[in-house]
C-alpha cells in the first residue's frame, strides 16, 4: 500500500496526509509527531471536518481496524448505553454538523457518555477546537501504530 494511503488511515484529511507523505520517512518518532501536529494545526476547519467524516460513529458496531480497537471500551456497553450513545451522537451532529469525535482509547462507555453530555453544552466555535484536538490525539496514536 502506498505511504499516502497508510497515512490517510491515520487521519482522513487529504491535505494533512499529502503533507505528511511529502515529508515521509522521518528520522525519529518525535520528529514525525511534531510535524504531524504542526501540519494539523495549520489546516483549515474544512480539513478538520474532512478528517471527522472518516470516522465511524462512537460505539458503532460496524467499526473495524483501528477504530474498533480504539472504541473497545464500548464493546461491553448495555443496550441502553448504546441507545444513549446513538441518541446523544445524533443530537451532537444536529447541533454541530459533524459526529462526536473523541479519543476513545482507554475510555469506557460511561466516560464517553459524560464527555458527550458535557461537550453538547459548548458553543460551536469552542467545540470544533475541542474536536480538532481530539482528532490530533487520535492521529498521534495511529501514527505510532503505523510506525511500529
Topology:
Blueprint lengths: L2 H8 L3 H10 L5 H14 L2 H9 L11 H6 L8 H18 L12 H11 L4 H23 L2
Task: Give a description of the structure.
It is built from 8 helices and no strands. The chain has 148 residues and is mainly alpha-helical. The protein has one domain (3-146): Orthogonal Bundle (UraD-like), CATH 1.10.3330. The radius of gyration is 15 Å and the shape is globular. 27% of the residues are buried. The model has no long low-confidence stretch (mean pLDDT 91).
Give keywords.
148 residues; mainly alpha; UraD-like; 0% strand; globular
Would you summarize the structure shown here?
The chain has 8 helices and no strands. By secondary structure, it is mainly alpha-helical.
Unreliable parts: none
- Quick one: CATH class? Mainly Alpha
Number-wise, the strands total: 0
Q: What percent of residues adopt helix (DSSP H or I)? A: 55-70%
Percentage of β-strand residues: under 5%
Q: What is the helix/strand order? A: HHHHHHHH
**Number of separate structural domains:** 1
Largest sheet: none
Amino acid at each position: 500500500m502506498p505511504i499516502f494511503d497508510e497515512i490517510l488511515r491515520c487521519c482522513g484529511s487529504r491535505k494533512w496526509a499529502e503533507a505528511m507523505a511529502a515529508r515521509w520517512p522521518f528520522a525519529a518518532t518525535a520528529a514525525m509527531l511534531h510535524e504531524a501536529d504542526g501540519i494539523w494545526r495549520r489546516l483549515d476547519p474544512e480539513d478538520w471536518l474532512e478528517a471527522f467524516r472518516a470516522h465511524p460513529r462512537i460505539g458503532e458496531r460496524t467499526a473495524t481496524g483501528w477504530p474498533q480497537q480504539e472504541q473497545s471500551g464500548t464493546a461491553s456497553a448495555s443496550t441502553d448505553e448504546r441507545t444513549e450513545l446513538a441518541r446523544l451522537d445524533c443530537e451532537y451532529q444536529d447541533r454541530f454538523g459533524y459526529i462526536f469525535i473523541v479519543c476513545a482509547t482507554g475510555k469506557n462507555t460511561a466516560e464517553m457518555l459524560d464527555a458527550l453530555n458535557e461537550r453538547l453544552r459548548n458553543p460551536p466555535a469552542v467545540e470544533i477546537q475541542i474536536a480538532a484536538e481530539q482528532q490530533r490525539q487520535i492521529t498521534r496514536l495511529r501514527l505510532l501504530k503505523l510506525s511500529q
